[in-house]
Amino acid sequence: MNDKNKKIGLFSLIMMIFSSIFGFANMPVAFLQMGYASIIWYIFAAIFFFLPVSMMLAEYGSTCQLTPV
């Protein structure tokens, strides 16, 4: 397998940009406006935030060449 041609795909790039811009910055506003009803949205946002982040880290990890010391 040729490891020199590994590239980040379009979907991965879009998810990286979206998660870095949106992030969790809007969560305190949701709690202020909705109260305890926003807990479901916290869970929803956590799933859709950490899923792209885990994909990004997997992409970064797959391109890293580890050599034994």
TrEMBL record:
Record field: transmembrane: 12-33, 39-58
Q: Does the keyword Membrane apply?
A: yes
Q: Which UniProt keywords apply?
A: Membrane, Transmembrane, Transmembrane helix
The organism sits in which domain of life?
Bacteria
Q: What is this protein called?
A: Amino acid permease
Phylogenetic classification of the source organism:
Bacteria, Bacillati, Bacillota, Bacilli, Lactobacillales
